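Box 3.1 — From sequence to structure: Thioredoxin domain-containing protein
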Amino acid sequence: MKFIISILLFIIAMNINAQNYDTCKIQKSEAINAQKIDKNELICIAKNSEKPFTVFYTLTSWCAPCREHFPDILELNKTGKVNLYVVLVESEKDKRIVNAINFIKSKSENIKFGVLKDEFYGTNTGKRNKKFVTEITPKNNEVIDGYGKLILVDKSGKILYTTSWKDYEGDSKNYKKMLNNKILPLIK
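Predicted structure (token representation):
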């Protein structure tokens, strides 16, 4: 009986989550199997989350630190307070993006992800990232256009924090320390 109730609760949660994305009217990419997003959709996703916070993580297929820290990002699920969503920075039509999607799915089939809209951010990865990072970085944070960023958004749609390499003192080994010092205190 407990098993059946667990299955039913899971199905209900999945349907609520699907309805939330319908509320945001997020388009599917014609080039890849992913949602197309911009800052407005990112905010809508956070506002319609069933959890109090949403963490968006920027990723490219070729970014070694992005891939290295992805398991640490998945650990945030254990808090029970965040939804995780990966933001693919490469162009929808970039052939390398399939590698990023395969990487995400190899680590977790349940992680939601989307790709930055080509029509809004262009197709050059560096320029796309710079434009996106500039618009999502809160005014009290320095704009640093690196990859592997965490963007913490609360249920009201307020962007609370955007990380950069400076937050982990330029040493990728300090990534967990950065999570513990910068992100976890904000979601407690």
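Summary of the box: Residues 27-187 form a domain with the Glutaredoxin fold (CATH 3.40.30.10).
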